[in-house]
Amino acid sequence: MFSIGYDVVDLSLTDPTRAERLAAKFMNAAELDVPGFLSFHHYCWLCWSIKEAVYKHACRMQPGLVFSPARIVVTGLSESLEAVAGGVRTYSRMGQGFIETVACDAAFAAELCADPHARAVAHAGEGWAVKHRSDGCPSLVRGNEEMPVSFSHHGNYAGFALVLP
Amino acid sequence: MEMIMDRHEILEELKKVLGPYIKNKDLLQNIDETTNLIADLRINSANLVDIVIDAEAKYNIEIDVDSAEKMTTIGTCIDVIQEKLEQPS
């Protein structure tokens, strides 16, 4: 089964003056070459969002995995905000006030919305429901069927991403 | 000069560090060393690094990346802070 990880960052809750100190705590030396199309502040939080999405992607297969952001290295970041991190493809979007990232190697659907659980269930269709594993890892389930899903919220933003069947 | 603080003193200061990142302040009333920052205090994961930086300022210590990754519960936060306080500056 494919996995998926999703993360959203509300940029209004981030402090540009702390970006350098934050980066020193979770960014790898190989990531400190800031692309010209991003401010350092946005790049810092983009990397954080990518690492969080990749971590959530990995947790599905490795329950109990500890989040080690410095060990998840973001590589190949393009102007379209696609990258590879932790061996997984990531797709990010930066909008007015937010950054969202999906980590997934399969076709997926993602949506920023007010009620991600309800929207994910509606997207999946009749009979599906959200279920959480004991470690919190979510899935959509319908009988014996299972569809990987990931949720995130931060400040005014929330959303989900799910693997398309 | 090393600052000597026992676990209780560290915890009281740690609550002040965590406070700004906890929506429901009542959650701070019944914490113990097994309390998980994300699962129990509902701190957003995006604030974990902010907490490390604020703890460094509060206790006048430096927390390296490997130590920061351990700070997932109240107990492990106190462990890391105590370790750093005991290190010669």
Give a concise summary.
The complex is a heterodimer of chains A (165) and B (89). Chain A is an alpha+beta fold.
Describe the structure.
The complex is a heterodimer of chains A (about 160) and B (about 90). Chain A has helices at about 20-25, 40-60, 115-125; strands at about 5-10, 75, 80-85, 90-95, 100-105, 110, 130, 140, 145-155, 155-165. Chain A starts with a strand and ends with a strand. In chain A, helix 1 runs parallel beside helix 2 (about 40-60). The mean pLDDT of chain A is about 95. Chain A is globular, with a radius of gyration of 16 Å. Chain A has about 160 residues and is α+β, with helices and mostly antiparallel strands. Helices cover about 20% and strands about 35% of the residues of chain A. In chain A, strands 1-5-4-3-2 form a five-stranded antiparallel sheet, with helices on one face. A five-stranded antiparallel sheet of chain A has the order 6-10-9-8-7, covered by helices on one side. The radius of gyration of chain B is 12 Å and the shape is globular. In chain B, helix 1 (about 5-20) packs across helix 2. Chain B has helices spanning about 5-20, 50-60, 65-70, 75-85. Helices cover about 50% and strands about 0% of the residues of chain B. With about 90 residues, chain B is an all-alpha fold. Classes of the chains: A alpha+beta (about 160), B mainly alpha (about 90).
